[in-house]
Amino acid sequence: GDMLSHARTEMEVLKELAGDEIKGLAVITDELQMAHAGRQHAAAHQFQRKMLCHGEILEKKRSALRASPIY
């Protein structure tokens, strides 16, 4: 009977440890998702800025073309 009770307590300890591990993983996963969302947001923002810059450059080229006299 002693072996069984020993095995049972080991299982309980393992379950508790596993529970902590899973909880820890859940926290890490949440943090990763938050970081990923933040990165995606930053990337989208960067892309928008690039497009705006690109648009301004194109505008400048167009007005320069319009301004230059054509012989």
Structural class of the helix and strand makeup?
A: mainly alpha
In angstroms, what is the radius of gyration? 30 Å
Which residue ranges are poorly predicted, with pLDDT under 50 across at least 5 consecutive positions? none
Give me the count of strands.
Answer: 0
Helical residues, percent:
over 70%
Q: What's the shape?
A: rod-shaped
The count of helical stretches stands at 1
Q: Largest sheet, if any? A: none
**End-to-end span in angstroms?**
106 Å
- Summed over residues and divided by their number, the pLDDT gives a mean of 83
What's the order of the H and E elements? H
Taken as a percent bin, the fraction of beta residues is under 5%
